[in-house]
Every structure is written in structure tokens, then in C-alpha cells.
Design a protein that fits this description.
The complex is a heterodimer of chains A (285) and B (282). With 285 residues, chain A is mostly helical. Chain A has 13 helices and 2 strands; from the N terminus they run H-E-E-H-H-H-H-H-H-H-H-H-H-H-H. Chain A is 77% helix and 3% strand. Chain A is globular, with a radius of gyration of 24 Å. The chains are: A mainly alpha (285), B mainly alpha (282).
Chain lengths: 285, 282
Amino acid sequence: MRAHTRIGFILLLTPLVLWLGLLIIIPHIDMFLISIRERISFGVYETSLAQYEKALTEPLYLRTFWRTAVMSVLATAITLVIAFPVSYYIAKMAKGRLQQVLFMLCLIPFYVSELVRTFGWMILLRETGLVSNLLQWAGLADQPVEMLYNDAAMMVGLVYTSMLFMVVPLVTTLESLDDSVIEAGYDLGGSGLSVLREIIVPHAMPGIVSGCIVVFMLSLGNYLTPTMLGGKDSLWFTEMIYNQFIVRSNWELGAAFGFMLLVLSSVIVWGMLRLTGRTLQETMG
Amino acid sequence: MIPTIPQSRGFRLIYGGYVLLFFLYLALPLTVVAVFAFNDSQFPSLPWEGFTWNWFFGEDRPQIGVFHERGILRAVGTSAFVAACVALLSVCVGTTNAFLFNRYEFRGKGLLYVLMLLPLVIPGIVLGISILVFSSTLANGIWDLAQMDIQALRPGLLLVILGQFSFITTIATLVITARLQKFDRTLEEAALNLGATRLVAVRTITIPFLMPAMIGAVVVAFLMSFENFNTTLMLVGSDAPLTIAMFDRLKEGSTPLLNAVSLLLMLGSSLLALVVILFQRR
């Protein structure tokens, strides 16, 4: 590199390194260091794995950890199943103006804060809510029905919140599939189902993977939806992190929880990329 | 399953019906939030007590409207301030990042690019607590060394701004890089041939070309910051941004005031989104 490009290079590299170093890398190392220490007495700490031991032996913690993981996978799967036909409709069946309008309609709810979306579901599902009133009016229930504060309500909210992040990548990949390829599939004697399985889904795979990764991440890291829509039994792992940090001021255990969440999400994202032979750059970039 | 392949009428009906149901599902929560902003009652729920503008303009208890509710107005101001700072910072760093990755080949570039993407796959809460932990380590270290208490390193607006900046920068970088990749380098070379210095060439040729992406990134960053909840929750001090203030009220039980705020938020963000779309089309 010549001298002046060298200066330019350093000038451009500095903000990147400061940003990643000071706000991402060092804080995470620090969080890890906090998580592997134990408070012996006031201001005296010792390195130990006590926090992780506590996290892995206490049934409540462990149960919440796995529940959060399983429910997030479930939310991702449901989102995919709901979003796929709609994305296919937008990408392949709708044409011209209609296509644009439908796509825009998918985007609109997500310009609105997650808090507002969750609030909407609370108004709909609570005891005095719209759905309860509708059921009474239709004669299906003879008293107000509480539909909030359970896993189903939470799932509805989770799926709703992350829908966009599934629809957009799916529509983008499905649009790039040439109609004539589908026609060829039918001409060669394929049925609707075999064309779907052997042509459409394989072609949409990149979109499916990136959609699933983002939706999974968002569900796993969600705090609002489980707190507002979920019940007492639907404790989410992020709520435990919040409780340890803010309510109990037990930073050591909270940091350990945070690190476990980070590892869980990295492992699952890495696994999904590995399974489909893709890289993070292709999927996110 | 494309229009050129004949399908039975029943199948098309079911498929169309499903898509219709999906869009109802999308619209339902937002519609009820908007409608109940006009309910003349203390609760955003049935029964419908009649139409009122009080939740926007009301001056007296119990129906104090948004425009007379100090707490909410202050929170909106806080959010706007935070969002403006985050948008400005992240677009500046996003632009330098885009130039770095587009113009230079260096060892470790691939690794740095992956690191740059990482904030997108770290849960927001974890980003928040890691910054909280680090800033407090820093503050305690400074206290031990110099007996100085740096308030800025305790939970508060600075940390909220840094926390949001830490992941919104990735998005700004991606948006601006995508546009820079489409840039024709020969235009810049022409400017250099005509006697411009490198800096002048970039300023007069490349930056104007990047402008739509940069403005798009400013708006996206502003909206993301305004709506951010998870990272903010962990870093917030005594000045609560709007999402946190609304969350606190929602926990205590809601009045249609929150619906009115939400409706204004929806209008505001759709307006911003519309501006971006129009701007990009031009």
C-alpha cells in the first residue's frame, strides 16, 4: 500500500475497531469474566464455576433454559409453515400492482413498535377483550374467557412479532424461481406435491434458512411477548436474566445466564448453517 | 401452482381464503389498538362507550390526552434525542465501514466482516448486559484509581445510545455497502484524471451517489432506535425513552391514553417509511 492509501486505511479501520472492540468484544469478555467468579465476602471474589453449577443444577433454571429453546424452535417452525404459502402467493401467484401492495402490507405492522403489537394482542385476548366478547355473543361461552397469560397466547404473539423476517427472505428467493422451471416439473409428470418438494422448496432453501435463523434469534431473545402475554408458567430465559441483573442485583449469575443464552443461540445458528452448508456472510449479508 | 398451471376452483378458493385470513391476522392487533384510542372509557376494551378525542387533546382528569401528558411528552423527547444520536453515529461508522470493506484488501478482512455481522445474531438483552457490565467495570476501575465517579458510565442515556448503536451500525453498514458495490469506480477515476484529489473525488462523486442509501440508513436507524426495547431495558437510567415509559404504564394497567400514543407512533413511522420509499423512487 502506498503512503496515502495507508493513512486512509487506518482512518477507516479505526472506527470499526473501536466499535467492535469497545462495544462488542471486550464487553462480552468482561461478561464472561464476571460469570466465572464467585462472591466470597464483601468485595472479595474468587474464580469458580459456581454460577454455571447453580444454573445447571437448579431445576427451575434448567427447565426455563430448555423450555425457552424448545418454544423458540416451535415458534420458528410455526412461523415458517404459516409464512410459506403466503410468501409463495405473493411471489408467484399475485402479479403487478397486487403483488406490490401485498408485500407492502406485510411490512407495515413491523414499522410499529413491538410494544404496540403486543398491546394489540392484549386488548384482543384479555378477559374483557374482543375475542372473549365475540365468543359470548356467539353463544360459545356463557362467561368472560381469559385467553391471556398462557403458552398459546405467547406463541401467537411470538409468531406475529417475527412474521416479517420470514416473509421477506422467502418472497425474495421465491421470486427468483423461474416459472418455466415449475411448468417443466408439471410437464414431466410431477404432481403439485412433488413439484413443491423437489423444485420449490430446494430453490427456496436459502430464504428458509435465513428466515429461520432470524426468527429463532428474535424469539429466543424476546422479552416483551413472554412477559406480557405469557403466564406464570411461561417464564422465559431473558426474564431470568433481567431478574438477576435488575431485581436481585446478582450480576454473576445473570452474566452466566447471559452467556448460556449466547452459547445456545450461537450453537443453533451454527448448526443450521452447517446443516445447509451456508455461511453467515451469505445468509445475513 | 402458478397461474399458467390450471388448478381446481376449490383449491384456488381455499388458497385465496388462507391468504386473506393471514392479512386479517396481520391487521387485527393494530386495528384494535387504533380503534380503542377513541373509546370514551377508562379502559381500552369493550363495552364501547362512544367516540372521543379526549385521549389526544383532553386537558382534565381522568382523561388527560397525549398532548397534555407531561410524562409521555418527555419520553417522546428522550426517544427522539436518543434516536437522532444513534442514527447519526451509526450512519457515520456505517459509511466508513462500507468504504473499508469495499476499497481495501487486507489480511483478516473476512474475519472482520464476520465480526461486523455478529451484533445481528447476539440477543439484544445480552448486548445490553454485556455493555452494562463493562461500563460498570470501567467506572469502578476509575473510582479505584482516581476516586472519580463518572456518572456517564452508569445506566443512563449515554449507555442507551451506545447499546443501540452497537447493533444498528451493522444494519447501516449493510445498507450502505450494498449501494457502494453498485458504484462505477471509473467515475471516480475520471475525476482523478481531471485533477481532483482523492478526497474531492469521493466528496463530489461517490458521496452523492451514496446519498439515497445513507438517508435510507438514517431513517431505518432512527426507527429501530425509537422502537428498541430489549437493549434499552438493560441500560436505562432515570430518563426513560418512550418504549420503556409505555411498558411501565402497561404493567400497571392501561388506559386508552396508551392507544392514542400507539396510534400516533404508527402514523409517525408510516410517514417516515413513506418518505423513504418516495425518496428512493426519485
